[in-house]
Amino acid sequence: MNPKTTSRGLVAEVIQYVAGVIILVFGVIMIAGAMASEKTNLSETSDLVLFLLLGVLPALFGGWLLFAARKNTRLRRLDAMENLVLQIAARYGGKLTATELAMNSKLSITQASEVLDNFTKQNAAYLSITNNGTYVYQFEGMISQQDKDQAESLKSLIYKE
User: CB-side exposure of 19: number of CA atoms within 13 Å?
Assistant: First the structure.
């Protein structure tokens, strides 16, 4: 399991987001204060260094933290969606249609179809079509318990034991 999808990852993501907002706001306030101040002379080296260290760098760092937190949120949601799709596919014996996914999730049929198409692009599922034109997504590696019980040992197949 991806550590970013755990509750610890979620807490870290929230902390990162809040820290990003605070640092960004601090940087913007410092930039605005430096621009509004009549005493600030950015042509002087000391004022320019302070402007960069206390204004521009915090604003950039805060923006980067927000961007990274947002990216982590997106990845966490994708991981959760992937997990949900695989659970639903397992309930349907490894074969799933977009309609079945939509019925068992909060996705529309169009969104469900896009998610399932992504699985085919990753070669995690293969597409087949029924006689009536319905697309069926077959997830590799999902087999029945009976098939698992009947699986033959590689040791016996290789060494003919």
Answer: 11
